Amino acid sequence: xxxxxxxxxxxxxxxxxxxxxxxxxxxxxxxxxxxxxxxxxxxxxxxxxxxxxxxxxxxxxxxxxxxxxxxxxxxxxxxxxxxxxxxxxxxxxxxxxxxxxxxxxxxxxxxxxxxxxxxxxxxxxxxxxxxxxxxxxxxxxxxxxxxxxxxxxxxxxxxxxxxxxxxxxxxxxxxxxxxxxxxxxxxxxxxxxxxxxxxxxxxxxxxxxxxxxxxxxxxxxxxxxxxxxxxxxxxxxxxxxxxxxxxxxxxxxxxxxxxxxxxxxxxxxxxxxxxxxxxxxxxxxxxxxxxxxxxxxxxxxxxxxxxxxxxxxxxxxxxxxxxxxxxxxxxxxxxxxxxxxxxxxxxxxxxxxxxxxxxxxxxxxxxxxxxxxxxxxxxxxxx
Length: 383
What we know:
This protein is of the alpha+beta class. The N terminus is likely disordered. The protein has three domains: 183 residues, Transcription factor LuxR-like, autoinducer-binding domain (Beta-Lactamase), CATH 3.30.450; 104 residues, PAS domain (Beta-Lactamase, 2-Layer Sandwich); 77 residues, Winged helix-like DNA-binding domain superfamily/Winged helix DNA-binding domain (Arc Repressor Mutant, subunit A, Orthogonal Bundle).
């Protein structure tokens, strides 16, 4: 199943591991993937061949529907799609029983550590799902990067032998390599993301990139300039100083990370003696993920104090807005949310939504922060 490997202790050093050549080659591929994440799948496939596994996937501890976007071997792709589509992640015995063992100090968890033959015989997860996909035996190699806890999940088919104690010792020797490789990938991805965030500055917008846990991993210069009396970053999280606004902001970030785009749009963060900052939360789609690796959502900030509110006549002339649409756009540019703007204009909220959709269409914008940035630039040029 695999080459013999041994632990040796050179004079004056700690114990080191002499890995079999196929495993060394696979680890080298994963180190390369630290500099080019497109190679991570190739590294996992090499690791599978080296240890006699059928398939593998790298999973952060904080993961749910975004499982579809995780690096995995080709054999794992259909499995992951079905795992999410059929909602098996809601009853993932391996995660439920495995992570407590990891927390207790066991970095490598095998199938037999957490599941009994009776579980195999009676649990729908095994009878209806794992057997169908031919992935019965499992091993989890856990490790930490700079910012996250991960597991490389390895699977074997029912006609293969389970992972055993020899495998466990080998896998324990790999945890440090995996940690260093993925930490490098995270750091390089963060540097790349900062470059991607700089494009927002051309739109006069602040940009803050957060990971799957809502922790800040990159901030552009515009966003840094907006931090202070209304917003701050503490504990690697963007926080509003106003308690009510912060509760709304954290809820919006959490729901966007979990469920995708939210209908209510941006949050107005009040500031003493100044107009608010608008914060919009946008999930990063897979197609746009390349510059923002490890980033799951983009917080877009618009400073309403940066330029005057555009005149309604200017909006009518520039975009063909109706009088009511121009009035609503101007109120939004003042920092009111949609409900407040509707109340100010004495119109119903649904009517305001209809007007806002028309404003988005006529201005070729999609989100409130994007609209505000456009109106600010227009006001600066035309008044």
